[in-house]
Write a structure and sequence with these properties.
The complex is a heterodimer. By secondary structure, chain A is mainly α. Chain A has helices at about 10-20, 35-45, 60-75, 80-90, 95-100, 115-120, 140-145, 190-210; strands spanning about 5-10, 60, 105-110, 130, 170-175, 180-185. Chain B contains six helices and twelve strands. Classes of the chains: A mainly alpha, B alpha/beta.
């Protein structure tokens, strides 16, 4: 690969990042990083905007590690872009490289733990400890919620107690209790849904009567 | 408004042996109060999030509705109330409007026809309530508080308590705290506990409608009596000392120092850490 004094073209950068991505076992099933992903992350401030744009743009090699690191924070630590931006501002490039290469661990903690920091330092490891407070300075409550709205979109029901998958197209979970779930094929009118509710409550009460 | 915050520090033993390691406990009492003559109560920005999923059928939903109606009647025109009902879908009954008789009647009417529905997307219900409170915070600067009323048992959306708690904590640090009320004798605390613990609030347990009314009004009283917001305690220690915090407050650690984020302090309340 022609690194042009350690600078990579856009396609070389993506290629190198995906080669690194493949070497992270926990991300084996993750989809590759694409050019549009890179553009989005630049737009969101996760990567600095470089002076040149278009096919002639060149990127430092460290960007490849940074791209994989962002993916790790997203997929393995479930951090939001707001949090990731703050982490990147505080973590040195050499730490990013070591984490991506698997030479250094990473942990998200919901509280400060001096004992754990001490144990890592005794082993000569740099500790990357992230707390939920990160990002507090960089976004209002409204902005924060806006940045994580995608994570709160409704997902298919987890329970699958009947042969019909809850996510099967055309089916609606019309009522669910502790022991009874009613699924009906769409379209479902308001009247029918109300009837299903009544039926569900009736069936649930029968189950509760049977309980010891 | 002028607020007085009083810190008291107390060691378990006041001597340290020379030439050997030892462990010492430090108790820090933080008391907050309003200065004489200051305005006594802040108007509230409250969001109530009601679970109307199938498992809430019968007395549970009735209790949650009764509690919410009780709160409606206790608010004044300076207060803002948001009400959200959720199952696998979310319905907003009120989005932080200033309270008046019209709003009161509209919300009460919508609550009285509320019926149980499908699955439980608790995280989305919390999100909608928090969004309404955040909108009011953005437009008025008034700190928000979300109370989730549910029997737990979330089975849609974010059901893992860890990421849910992280979002709740992030919002608490931005001025919108959260509490939870577990309804019914067999409520599941898994996600509710994460909301209360990381939201700077509490997890209450209620079986009866009257208990729910008391708990929500109690929360309301506490929110009204917040004397200081975003309180942060900075501890620094010399080389050779290791610090261990015996509490769950969010904190940011750096070399030789830790910032403990206490959040809001109520008047005459006491936060203890040892």
């Amino acid at each position: 690969m022609d690194t042009n004094n350690d600078l990579l073209t856009l396609s070389e950068l993506i290629e190198q990042a995906n080669a690194l991505l493949e070497r992270v076992p926990a991300l084996a099933s993750t989809s590759p990083i694409e050019e549009r992903t890179l553009r989005y992350w630049v737009q969101e401030g996760l990567l600095p905007r470089l002076g040149t744009r278009g096919p002639g743009s060149h990127y430092p090699q460290s960007f490849a590690y940074r791209l994989v690191f962002i993916r790790m924070l997203q997929k393995l630590q479930a951090l939001t872009l707001v949090h990731i931006r703050d982490v990147l501002a505080r973590v040195e490039e050499r730490t990013v490289k070591r984490v991506v290469e698997g030479k250094e661990g990473m942990r998200v903690s919901t509280k400060f733990d001096a004992d754990e920091i001490g144990k890592h330092r005794a082993r000569g490891e740099e500790v990357l400890m992230l707390e939920p407070g990160l990002g507090a300075e960089s976004a209002s409550a409204k902005d924060y919620l806006g940045s994580v709205s995608g994570q709160f979109r409704s997902t298919p029901a987890k329970s699958a107690r009947s042969p019909v998958s809850a996510s099967a197209p055309g089916w609606l979970v019309a009522w669910q209790g502790d022991d009874v779930e009613i699924r009906v094929r769409r379209p479902v009118s308001t009247t029918l849904r109300e009837r299903m509710r009544l039926a569900g409550e009736l069936l649930q009460s029968m189950f509760e009567e049977k309980k010891p | 408004m002028t607020t007085c915050i009083d810190f008291k520090l107390q060691w378990d033993l006041d001597r340290v042996p020379a030439g050997q390691s030892c462990t010492r406990g430090l108790l820090i009492d933080v008391n907050a109060g309003l200065a004489p003559g200051a305005e006594e109560r802040l108007p509230v920005n409250l969001a109530l999030v009601l679970d109307r999923s199938g498992s809430m059928a019968g007395r549970r939903l009735g209790a949650a509705v009764a509690g919410t109606l009780g709160v409606l009647n206790s608010l004044t025109e300076s207060d803002r109330l948001s009400v959200v009902a959720f199952d696998d879908d979310v319905t907003s009954l009120s989005r932080g409007q200033p309270m008046n008789d019209n709003i009161r009647q509209q919300v009460a009417g919508a609550l009285n026809v509320l019926r149980t529905g499908g699955t439980t997307d608790l995280s989305r219900g919390w999100y909608e309530g928090a969004s309404s409170a955040a909108d009011v915070l953005g437009s008025t600067g008034r700190r928000g508080h979300v109370v989730v009323l549910s029997d737990g048992k979330a089975n849609r959306g974010i059901t893992d308590p860890e990421p849910l708690g992280r979002h709740v904590a992030a919002l608490a640090q931005r001025g919108v705290t959260s509490s939870a009320v577990g309804i019914g004798p067999d409520y599941s605390p898994l996600q509710l506990d994460a909301i209360a613990e990381h939201g700077g609030g509490r997890l209450h347990h209620c079986d009866l409608p009257s208990d729910i009314v008391d708990v929500i009004l109690g929360e309301l009283g506490e929110v009204r009596e917040i004397a200081a917001t975003d309180v942060e305690l900075l501890l620094r220690w010399p080389h050779g000392v290791t610090l261990k915090l015996l509490n769950d407050f969010p904190s940011i650690a750096r070399e030789g120092e830790v910032r403990i984020q206490l959040g809001g302090l109520q008047t005459m309340s006491r936060s203890r850490r040892f």
